[in-house]
Amino acid sequence: MWHDGYLGHVPDAPHAHRGLADFRLRVPLRVGRTTVAADGLRLTGFAVLHDDEIERMYCTGARGTGVADALPRHGKHMVAPWYEHVVAAR
Fold first, then answer.
1. Cα separation of 42 and 13, whole Å?
2. How many CA atoms lie within 13 A of 8 on its CB side?
3. Where are the domains of the chain?
4. Shortest CA distance to 57 belongs to which of 80, 84, 30?
5. 6-16: average pLDDT
6. Verdict on whether the full-model pTM lies above 0.70
7. Which of 3, 13, 20, 49 is deepest in the core (most CB within 10 A)?
8. 8: burial class by Cβ within 10 Å (0-12, 13-18, 19+)?
9. Which one is predicted more confidently, 80 or 41?
């Protein structure tokens, strides 16, 4: 999954740390800080918080639904307690 979006866009070094084994180690630690967007049973996106930042965000097949706007807005709300002023990147 990771390789599809980043191959050719980031240096080669991180690819060694983005395999299934790495995924299985990181995911259980972040489940409680993950927001999932769905259309019925179909996943349309997710945002993962780590400490005081949105570490991962993914959105697909949700054009026109508002998911791409809602996930960063929700993430901004979740990290706000760490900052006096939070600015969402556009």
1. 32
2. 2
3. 2-82
4. 30
5. 73
6. no
7. 49
8. exposed
9. 41
